Each structure stands twice: as structure tokens, then as C-alpha cells.
Amino acid sequence: MTLNKTVEQVTDRIRTRSRDRRSEYLERVEAAINDGPRRAELSCSNLAHACAAMPDSDKSDLKGNQAPNLAIITAYNDMLSAHQPFESYPSRIRDVARATGGTAQVASGVPAMCDGVTQGQPGMDLSLFSRDVIAMSTAVGLSHNVYDAALYLGICDKIVPGLMIGALTFGHLPAIFVPAGPMVSGLPNDEKNMARQLYAEGKIGRAELLDAESQSYHAPGTCTFYGTANSNQMLMEIMGLHLPGASFINPNTPLRDALTTSATRRALAITALGNEFTPIAKIVDERVLVNGIVGLHATGGSTNLTLHLVAIARAAGIEISWDDFADLSGVVPLLTRIYPNGPADVNRFQAAGGMSVLISELLTDSLLHEDVQTVFGPGLAAYTKEPKLDDAGDTTWSPGPQKSLDPQIIASAMLPHSPNGGLRVLDGNLGRSVIKVSAVKPEFHLTQAPAVIFHSQEEFQNAFEAGKLDRDFVAVMRFQGPKACGMPELHKLTPPLGVLQDKGFKVALITDGRMSGASGKIPAAIHLTPEAVDGGPIAKLRDGDLIRLDADAGTLEVLIEDSIWNERQLASADLSASRSGIGRELFSVFRAQVGSAETGASVF
Asked: Domains, the chain, ranges and CATH?
């Protein structure tokens, strides 16, 4: 079928825009491919160090330079439920590699912080910067240059994007991303959200709230709502970097283990020592990135990806912009209803047909590039299959469901939940920002109300508890950008704003910070750029200024005479409290070097 015209046009303009940068990147990759792993050229001392801790059989294989050696880059730790299952993965991968004629080594561990733990806490100021630390940590591990391919063990918010940036920097190496899957379902997400709102209203106490949260987050695996972590998993699969159907199989199950075994075998098969050499640089191109954006829109995914995909693309020598996101959102229908865009969690999404049905619907509607390379082989059509266990306990793939098993969770492209993806770019005299409206009711797409200025979530919470916000208003949360304090997520604002909206008030949020994958029913113009500390117009706003946020028209403006606005001075803020403590002192160089939200908020 003919590719959707807008998808084709956006892909072509990305290719044109990126031509020089992409060419330089591919030249570097080709030079590294020609050099190959340097094991044969290492000094005896170098090589002895590289395999000193390996069993004798592995040493013999590694020294011979003919058996492929896999790097394992792991984000394992016990504190992240999504990453705890990775504890046992290296042993399995090493055993499978040996049985398949190769070797495997943990090349490095990368940091992995949980945004759920740091929400509203000082540590959240390190969250976004951790992505670039992860990329650098990946580079440190791979710098030993004794590997033929890499397996990346990571799932959550900044971890997968950081691993992707690192992997693409070593674009000459094949790469497969190996997930651990979502935790089994607990308390439904809408009930958890109700408990948070009741707590914000003072109708339940902390004990009841903690009980609800503990019923929601209760087992190994990814949190079951469709936030950044699960958006990452969708992204890796639709971009062809997972094995088909790998994203949403629960941890510690036979199929999950079999998929890890298959990923190891496949990684060995696609090295330069085999017949199917597939470096990641030859997978991630303009078409694959567009497929990722299409998947983001079709699932109502995390707004964090408007930062991360830009940074990932740049690591591959490709330049994508928020306008690309906006134009694709206009033609990609919303096909899924997964919390916060609906009541279902990712386990119900998987049961309804999961990624195989989603990709099938998007291919049928000509919204995806099918003619791409994947870690599984040529063509995205293979990702309409789903994994099963054969009689020997190995993975086999068979055709997935022909249509959704629950249209309330996964709709058809002919009868979507919404005709567009719900992600918009807002422009106006306050700058540029993104807004996700897939969970916002149409009557709230336009908000015109006076500004109330805040410089911290605590300041907002105090005003809410004092009853000062029982009215129509636009909350302006500024000095939250990457240069100011690392661009933290601002989820403490969501429950009280939800309470006020339910009371009948017209409320909205404008911020140069983030709201991320759990953005919900409140209209929120986020990632505003330029940020306040960088001279952005948001720093000119004063209490009472009339603001108009129109998600349908794509505008964000302060309604004030130009002569007054142009003469108004920028406000300042004391940021010293957010620049020390909990390790924030160590990140001053990141705050000084970081780029804007629209360029990926990266230090590279």
C-alpha cells in the first residue's frame, strides 16, 4: 500500500535536513566497522586483562578472535521494580552464548534511578541528566573494544534513551534491547489515582494512601500504567530493536526467559563474524525514527519522548523537530486507551493483542514504514507476529490476532478512539511548548484565565491547602527548566489541579519543566522554551496576566499590549536551594552546558 502522504513528507524533510550530519555519522561508523573489534591487535597484557576472570573455555574462545563476544550493558538494581529481574540475566546470557559458540561479559553497569521514588524530592533534579550519564557510562563499558555486539538491559524513563544514545555512538556494533516486562496487575490505576485525589482533598489519610500505592506497585516489573517506561518498550519494539512481541511479557515466566535466550542467540547471529551483520547504525534511520513517533501518537505515549527521541536521533546524525511530531500527530489516530488515557493497564493491552495488533493496524493504514531493517531481519511485518513456547521450551513466532480482542483498549484504524494522536505544539508570545491532550476532555482544550506564578511545587501546594486557588487560573510554574534545576517532573501538581477542575474551575498549567508520561486530564503546556533562566518570556509573566492556552489552535499567549510586554523586565529566582544536596553539586557542569528542551535537553 502507498505510504501516508504526510508520513512520507515528514520522513523526506528529516532526511534532507539531516543529510550532512547523517553522512558524517555513517562515515565514522563505517571506519569503525572496517577496524572491527581490536582483540587481535591488543597487546598480550591488554588481552590477558580482558579475559582474566573468564573460565578457561571462554578465555580460549576470546583469545582466538573467531568466537563472537557479547557486551552486556545492564541497568540492574534492586530498587527499581522494573530492573530487579535483570539480576539473573547475565548468567543466562553467558550460558546461552557458550552453548551457541560465543562468549558474553558484563561490560558495564549504568545508573538507573526511579522517578517514582524521587517525585517531588530533591533527587528528581538529577533525573533528566541521568540519561546523559547513562550514555557516557555505556561508552565507558564499550570503550574496551573487545565486543562484537551488545545486549542492553534497561526499561525505565531515562535509562532506555541513555542506552540508545550510547548504543548509537557505538553504531558499528549490533545491538538488541532486552526487556524484563511489566509487573502483574494490582490495584487498578484509576482507583490509585482516585486515592491520590482523595488524599489531596483531605478525605483520606496517609495510611490509606500508602495502602493504595502499595497495592499498585507491588511486584517485580514495570509499573503498569502507560508512562515513559512502557512508552520506551513500545518504542523499542516498533523501531525493531526488541525481538517481536518482547515488550510486555511478565517477568519470571517461561516465555520471558525464552525471549532472553532468543535475544542472545540473535545477537550472536548478527555480528560481523556471521552472515547477517546488522549494526544498529544501519537500523536506526529516518524511517525508523518516524515509525517511533507514529507509535508514540497511536498509543498516547509519554511526552518525555519529545525530548528523548530528539536526543536519540541526534546521536544517529539525524535532526528531528517538534514540528515533525506535530505534523505526524495530525494524521496518526489514537488507537489505544491505556491509563492515563483510559482505564486499562499494559497487561490488558497485551491481552487485547498488544504490539502485534497495534503494528498490524498501523501498517494496514499505511502509517508505518514497513521496509526497514530490524534486529529480527528485514521488514516490520514480522512484528505482527507474537512469541509462543514450542514443545522444547524455545521461542517460536506465529501470526498474532488479526484484530483487537478488545476494541475499547485497542481500536481499529478505521474506528479509532480519536482521529489524531493528541500531541500538539503550542506557539505564541510565550515561546514554544508541547501539550498532550489525549486524556484531556475537549471542553478543556481552551483555557483563558489569569496567571498565578509559582517557583516551586511546595509553594503551589501551600496555596492550594490554604484555599487560595478556588477559582479559574493558569498555574505558571517557572524556573524548572534544564538550565535552572535539571527539568524535574512536576507530578505533585496533578492531584490538586484535578481536584480544582472537578470542582468546576477552569485550570491549566504552563511550565518550562516536565509532566511526562503520567500527564493526565489537566491541560498542561510543558517543556516551554526558551526557559525562564535562559531569558524566556515566561520570566516576564506576573500574577493576574491573562493567558490563553488553545490546544486546538496550537497557541499559547499572554493577552497584553505589545508596548507593555516589550518593556517588561524578566523576573529572577533564587535557585541556590536546588543546586546543592543529594548530589546536585556534581551536576553544575550539566546545567551550564545543557541545550534547550526542543533540541533534546542534552549536554552532547
From this structure: 5-184+219-399 (no CATH), 185-218 (no CATH), 423-599 (3.50.30.80)
